[in-house]
Design goal:
Layout (H helix, E strand, L loop, with lengths): L1 H6 L1 H6 L5 H33 L8 H28 L6 H21 L9 H15 L31 H22 L7 H7 L44 H13 L4 H16 L2 H12 L4 H5 L4 H5 L2 H5 L4 H20 L1 H9 L3 H25 L3 H16 L16 H27 L3
Length: 449
């Protein structure tokens, strides 16, 4: 739907007899078909692995493929329907929805465990847990009903006595999964109530904004006498040549302009939260300041970083900006430096605490994170032309790394321990490669490639 809004196709479709129900249902089925194609590839891969790498090559089609049909397909339907529902809300169709989706996904996985209601299991993982735990109790000495999905940072021990025959597909289990498939269709019908049918006037009313002054309806006509007549003769134009120092001056002014552009449009409460996180880094214990507080401080400006490299494509100003003098060696570094400054300022409290504590390794890791975040945003923005790629990838990386303290993936360095310097060098090298990739792509854009 967002693509239809940006390309103007949505307004064309709105002028046709196509109903909102038909449009949303078509979008849902097309998105669901894309996800189903991925599931089919995985299912075919499972069949191939069964014959190529399994200990027992006896093929039981239903036992192997039933989880793909009854667990995965309803989950994919819920994914497609939820994404479509997000697109119908003006507040969620942008970057906020991309970030919120990561947390909604995690909440959906843990919902049956938190509520102790097995029915609230859109992903089907709780159903797997309930089926697997009895087998684990019987085959693993000392097993205490634990079940988790994680990135193992230590060597694992294989339980030789663990044998699981899979889920017992009773009628109640199958009905529970089909209910989630029906819930996906219900979400599509619910989206009809909030879909504005690409009407910009309705979008402004929902956002609480008055109509633009002087705005007219598409049916309004302009009186011929109100249009100024073109000049009869050509008017001579005099262009002032650039001064010799104009190509090299104003670097700091350009950096200040990029920083103002990055911070433009944020309300006062955004700065209050950012300032509160900064003050908390100075006041909290060091491990809290460089851990949870720094992680929170570096997720808060995600929409500032996600705009790096995408404003030209988003607002259609590429031809205007790319025609400026020495745009690549001047504006490109200024935009990157603005992102670096945002990362450094929002995480300044943790850096000062690390410096005062004499933890040079932690300070190096902090500096690597300051360089890595805007570099990742700039590279993904320039190459994709959209902020969605960075918002989704960075939120997932932040969730797995800093939030869950996985060594190596925690770009803040808080979970790296004695390996902090080594990982910091890796992230610094990645930052350099990302900036180089963004520079190459921007140079190609300037050449019209």
């Amino acid at each position: 739907m967002d693509r239809d809004r940006q390309t103007g196709v949505g307004q064309i479709l709105a002028a046709t007899p196509l109903s909102k129900v038909s449009y949303l249902l078509g979008k849902f089925l097309s998105n669901f078909a894309v996800l189903v194609s991925m599931v089919v590839v995985l299912a075919l891969g499972a069949v191939a692995i069964q014959f190529l790498a399994a200990e027992d090559r006896t093929f039981h089609p239903w036992a192997l493929l039933a989880p793909f049909v009854l667990l995965t397909l309803p989950a994919m339907a819920m994914t497609a329907a939820t994404a479509l529902l997000f697109e119908t809300f003006r507040l969620l169709r942008g970057g906020l929805g991309n970030v919120l989706w990561i947390f909604l996904w995690g909440f959906g996985i843990g919902l049956p465990g938190v509520t102790d209601l097995p029915q609230l299991d859109p992903s089907g993982l709780w159903m797997v847990y309930q089926s697997m735990v009895p087998a684990a109790r019987a085959g693993i000495p000392g097993y205490v009903d634990s079940f988790s999905l994680t990135v193992a940072d230590k060597s694992v021990k294989i339980a030789a006595g663990f044998h699981w025959n899979g889920i017992d597909w009773t009628a109640g289990v199958v009905i529970a999964r089909l209910v989630w498939l029906g819930t996906a269709f219900a979400l599509v019908w619910g989206g009809v109530l909030f879909f504005d049918r690409f009407d910009p006037a309705r979008s402004r009313r929902r956002a609480g904004r008055p109509p633009k002054p002087g705005a007219t309806s598409p049916q309004a006509a302009v009186a011929p006498e109100s249009v100024p007549a073109p000049p009869r003769g050509a008017t001579p134009t005099h262009l002032t040549p650039l001064a010799p120092g104009a190509l090299h001056s104003g670097v700091w002014r350009l950096l200040a302009a990029e920083l103002r552009l990055a911070l433009q449009g944020y309300r006062w409460w955004w700065y209050v939260v950012a300032g509160g996180l900064l003050i908390a880094q100075f006041a909290a214990p060091l491990e809290i300041a460089r851990g949870p507080l720094l992680a929170a401080a570096w997720i808060w400006p995600i929409f500032i970083w996600s705009a790096l490299g995408t404003r030209e494509a988003r607002f259609g100003t590429g031809q205007l900006i790319f025609s400026c003098a020495r745009i690549l060696p001047r504006q490109f570094p200024a935009a990157w430096m603005a992102g670096v400054l945002v990362a450094a300022i929002t995480g300044l409290g943790a850096a000062v605490r690390l410096a005062l504590a004499g933890q040079s390794a932690g300070l190096v890791a902090w500096a690597a994170g300051v360089l890595f975040i805007p570099s990742l945003a700039l590279a993904l923005g320039v190459w994709s032309g959209t902020s969605k790629f960075f918002e989704g990838l960075y939120t997932a990386l932040w969730y797995v790394g800093p939030l869950n303290r996985v060594p190596g993936l925690d770009f803040t360095g808080a979970a790296s321990g004695s390996e902090a310097v080594r990982f910091a060098l890796i992230y610094t090298a990645l930052a350099g490669m990302l900036v180089a990739a963004a520079f190459i792509k921007r140079a190609r854009q300037l050449r019209g490639v």
